[in-house]
Amino acid sequence: MLTLHQAGLTTTPAISPLSGTLRPGELLAIVGPNGAGKSTLLSMLSGYRPCEKGQLRLDGKPLHEWPITELANRRALVAQQELPGFDWQTEELVSLGSNPSKALIAELLDDLDLTHLAKRSVLSLSGGERQRVMIARGACQLLSRRTPKARDGGLLLLDEPTSALDIGQQQRLMRQLRAWAAQHMMAIVGVLHDLNLAGTYADRIWLIHKGERIAHGRPQQVLTPETIADVYGAELQPPNSSTANSPFLALAP
Predict the structure, then answer these.
(1) Rounded mean pLDDT of the chain?
(2) pLDDT tens digit string along 1-11?
(3) Residue 49 lies inside a defined structural domain of this protein
(4) Which of 18, 44, 83, 100 fits as disulfide partner to 104, beta carbons 3.0 to 4.6 Å?
(5) What are the CA-CA distances from residue 107 to residues 112, 115, 221 (Å)?
(6) What is the CATH number of the domain that holds 85?
(7) Residue-wise pLDDT tens digits, 93-102
(8) Is the pTM of this model over 0.70?
């Protein structure tokens, strides 16, 4: 899918060179404190900000060599707080830029609990509802353009996809992202602030601090109390019998 070969950025905000692979069927969370470079890294992964060191290769081909229309078949980016520019209906915005079947639109709206909003103007929706609409649009872009010969469902990049959602919708969205990754063999990358969501739902985590990936691996390898205290300056309660097997982080009072 997407492979990083010592890829980085030298101009501010900079990203230290890093290597790795984004894998189909996997949900990867990018976490880190405010200003760590998470959104900048996501922009580099998408190709909107070309890497200035090393190289990114999508399906073995340098990312910067992909024609825009072909790249749109393989990569979709949902940025923070995307605002619709016109008074579209929800189902119209989901299909924008694609030629999806009615069945696919209906499936995506159902996946994200948006069916009852299909005919509503997107300008009348709440922030959390619009956020889910834009995520559905990103998924629609990839799935509607997928060719029969495609080995996977493409790369879906999400910048803070849960920021405007209540706790119930956060959980439902994260479960759905995992389902899409498995069902469609998508590689899904999400920038997350909530470490509990990242630790509960992500297959792997990249921890970014001051533009550098300082830890990566399975959630239990990355989200250790010592690392979190060091990077975030957060005070955590020591584990006890009630929290030792919990995926949630206990903050000190």
Answers:
(1) 92
(2) 999 999 999 99
(3) yes
(4) 100
(5) 9, 9, 35
(6) 3.40.50.300
(7) 999 888 899 9
(8) yes
